[in-house]
């Protein structure tokens, strides 16, 4: 059996037990509006059986399949890991993209050295990019084309394409990491390429690929809608700087499912202008956890709404479930549900940090901040490495509101665990350990009254907008 399959069966067994104890507590609070709404807030997933026979390569070539196979080798790719295969990939892309029902094939058992390249659509319908071999980046940062400072392989303006296969996209990032200012303060803080970027696209599926050792972020989904990512593995060393696993920006209706991510920064990070994001069965570790943000840096506006994480295992990560915003920002994070999460030796398992600062100079407290509300943590279990297992560090002027904890049990190695709150309103029910009594209640004196009068919840079912792929 596949290693990952075994892992998820282990999750599922654990979660069956968790769900059983969740039911009783729920009854008492069903009259609370916020819980009901968060309960119903979900994004439909696809069943992952779409065209599964496509994995079966011979069917591409068999007569009557109607597929047009475009093999990079036909365009002169050497696949020896040394020769520059960029031009062969560009030519093969051009041919495949312009032909209906084509399959661009990167054959298995070979390694293709490809420079930074933008592969642009739109392409003809039913385009499949089948990556079974390895694509590697040149490893020398000093030779990198400055025109492509932030990208290695970028795919843009695509509609209804499938990336799939058992292949590997390898950023050969070690020299980039050494040149990072996070590694050596005397290095300049410069951006580095992202291994794999989906840009300004819709109806994209990515299935089965491994993305590893990226120069910086591994996989970015940017300004896109309706993206499905299944069984993708991201692997970069735990000490590689800023190597986020999957980064979502400006995108809506995105599902990440059955992904295993180990990296040196956030396993998943979701930033500005993203909504309707669902993560299901995610393994994270090593890494900095599953994050919303950062948002609001340099007084900018950040908006993230409707995010669901259902079933995750985090192992030895430096954070667990994190929302991070800078002082001075504006906008909001609203409607987030983290459920069925198992943690093992995680630092900062549950964290809202409205004082986040990752700038070379320190950040000052300001009166404006990104507002954080309607955040639910349910069935979160495991072990914490920090005493403050639950930390809601919210702005004095823009408090966090509607924070709900249900069936949370985090144990410290040496027994003592505690919750910390600054300016955070909400409540816990069922088992909540450490106790989150530091949350102030909606009815407490001193609560910003304007918070009560307005419509507290803006999670509209109709807006879910699940597009067919
Ligand atoms: C790839 O990059 C190298 C180094 O910049 C350059 O010499 C080479 O011409 C590039 N190859 C292509 C096909 O652009
Ligand atoms: C950091 O970079 C500087 C300048 O490039 C170099 O002289 C120094 O040896 C580096 N330090 C370490 C610890 O690598
Ligand atoms: C956030 O997204 C909105 C909407 O797309 C955009 O207007 C704004 O400039 C973005 N903010 C940043 C910091 O990029
Ligand atoms: C952000 O706004 C504060 C308060 O108005 C101001 O002092 C600060 O200089 C601004 N920072 C940036 C990066 O614009
Ligand atoms: C910012 O405000 C928080 C909450 O009141 C406080 O804990 C922190 O010390 C302040 N930081 C600075 C730099 O003033």
Automatic annotation (TrEMBL):
It catalyses: (1,4-alpha-D-galacturonosyl)n+m + H2O = (1,4-alpha-D-galacturonosyl)n + (1,4-alpha-D-galacturonosyl)m. Keywords: Cell wall, Cell wall biogenesis/degradation, Glycosidase, Hydrolase, Repeat, Secreted, Signal. Residues 1-25 form the signal peptide. Pfam families: Glyco_hydro_28. Residues 447-469 are annotated as: Disordered. GO terms for biological process: carbohydrate metabolic process; cell wall organization. Its EC number is 3.2.1.15. One of its GO terms (molecular function) is polygalacturonase activity. The keyword Secreted applies. It is an enzyme of class 3 (hydrolase). It is found in: Secreted, Cell wall. Coiled coil: none annotated. The active site is at 288. Belongs to the glycosyl hydrolase 28 family. PANTHER family: PTHR31375. This is endo-polygalacturonase.
